[in-house]
Amino acid sequence: MCGIIGVIGHLEAEKQVAQALKLLHERGKDGQSFTEISKNSYFGHTLHSIVGHVQQPLQGKGTLVANCEIYNWKELSEKYSLPAKNDAELLLGFLDKFGLEKIEELDGVFAFAYYNEGKVFIVRDILGIKPLWFSITTEEFAFASEMKVLDSLNYLHVQELNPRKMIVYDIETKTITEKQREFFHYLPELDIGKEDILNKTQKLLHKAIEKRIPGKKLGLLFSGGIDSTYIANYLKNEKYEFTCYTVALETDGVVPKDLVSAREVAAELDLDLKVITIKQEDIPSYLEKIVPLIEDSNVVKVGVA
What integer pLDDT is reported at residue 51 of this predicted model? Predict the structure, then answer.
C-alpha cells in the first residue's frame, strides 16, 4: 500500500501536494517525495516498500507515481529488456515504451498516474482493488489515493475512477478523454471432464495464492471457513512462515461461531493462531475510525476491517 497524489494546473499545486502527503502518511512510512511535472503541476508519493526500496516519483521519458503490486514484473522485465529493481520501475519502463497499448499484460493490482508529453494518464487495475479518486474543474485536475485528501484540499465533485476506464488529461487544453477497457471473457464454457476441471482449478488457485505471497513472514486473516482454511493449508504445506489472526466479539457466555470454527481448524491443522477480542461497547469507536479510513460503509468490508 502506497499513497499517490497529483495536482495539475493549480497556482498552489506544490503547497497542496505537500499538504496531501501529510494526510497520506499512514499509507507509506518508508519515504515520501514530490516533483514538478509541468508549470503549476506536481506529483507526490508516500512509499510502503514491499519489493526493494525505490523512492517515487520515478522519472524516465515520463514521470510516474504508483500504488502497485505487479506480480509478473520480472517476466515483463525480461520479455521486453526493461531493467528494473521492482514492479514500479518496471511499470515506468513499460509505459515509456508502450504507453497504454499493452496495459492488459500487467498481472496485478495497481493505481497509477503517468505524465508524458503534456498528458496525464490515470489508471486502475481492472477490478478496482487499488483506490483512485479524481476531480476536474475548468482550470485544474487533481487525483489521490483517498477521497478525503481531495476533500481536504477543497476539490468538488470528487469521483472514484471507474476501473473499466482510463483517463487522459491534456494539460494544455484542460480536457479529459476516456479510454474504455475490455473486461474478462468467460465464454465459451469448458468442454472437458470433471477431473480435468478440478485439476485446472487447483492449479489456478495455487498460482493465485503463490504470486501474492511476499518474501517475508505474513499474516492471514483466518475465520476457519473454506477460503481461509484452504489458503492456510496451502501455506503450511509449502512451508511458509505465517500467523493466523482471528478477531471476535466478546459476548456474555456465548462464544462466536466463527471463533469456534477458527480454533477447531487451527488445532486440526496445527496452525499458529492469535485471537483478538473486541468488546461490544467499543464497536462505535472502532466504526468511527474504520469507516473514514477505508472510505466505505459496506458491511462486509467494515466487518473485515
Answer: 59
